[in-house]
Amino acid sequence: MTALKLKCRPREWISIPEKGKDYSADLNLHVYDRNGKLVDSYETMCASLDEDISFGDGDGGGMKINVDMIVAGEETLIQTGGNAWIFYLTPEVVWFEGQYGQTDGEAGAVTFGQFNIALQTYIQFLGDPEHKPIEVPFPDEPTPAIPDVSSIRERLELESVENARIYQLNTRDREVLAAIRAGMTDTEVCASLNLSPDRLAQYRVEVLEKTGLPSLEGIFGMIDRVDARKVEQSAKEARWKKMERL
How far apart are CA 144 and CA 149, in angstroms? Predict the structure, then answer.
């Protein structure tokens, strides 16, 4: 049921001469009920869009791509930060976290559909040089609960740890590991890379210490996973750039 209205119009400013500047007294967008009363439960969403999206074809376009990635099934959780807010996007729910104490942790959950409408409308408003007021119907949907995304966060944290471990390996480390993994004998590795047997033995110990893993097989598996994610990410970025041009 649609009984709400999303309204975008230029904010009000207060001039404080003694401080030599103007201060914003309002937001550029709000959600109102059928009686024209502001609906507080959407103020966190409105504030995050108002404060973190300044240009329709800049940061607004970047957020639109995040939305498109969720719609396309490319991602199940996107955590993205701006100047003042962190946005959490999932296929069903979007919520927010103020980076400067605007909220008490994560808050302000809205449905994905509501956020998409607000974002698209605000981008349209910002894209108009005259910033003419816009009013659109806004879905009156129950406030959703913030979903449990702990398993996704755990996966992302593990991936982050692996990325950090890989970063500890320099080019020479990777060359030695590649030669060992290719099935070369120690003699062949030393001849191929101009190493002494003692130095090769040191490399075997050093790469384990750098990555914190107990075996070379564990390192090989980690390298495969990280490299696969890099390929997947490169493909996503190529699609994002293509979408930006559309």
Answer: 14
Fold assignment, 151-245: Arc Repressor Mutant, subunit A (1.10.10)
User: Which residues of the chain fall short of a pLDDT of 50?
Assistant: none
Measured between alpha carbons, how far is residue 103 from residues 84, 108, 118 in Å?
A: 11, 9, 20
Distance CA 88, CA 109 (A): 9
Q: What is the pLDDT of residue 17?
A: 64
Alpha-carbon gap, residue 182 to 217, rounded angstroms: 12
Q: Could you please report the per-residue DSSP string of 193-222?
A: HT--HHHHHHHHHHHHHHHT-S-HHHHHHH
Long-range contacts of 70-74 (CB under 8 A, 24+ apart): 70/112, 74/236, 74/239
How far, in Å, CA of 223 to CA of 180, rounded?
14
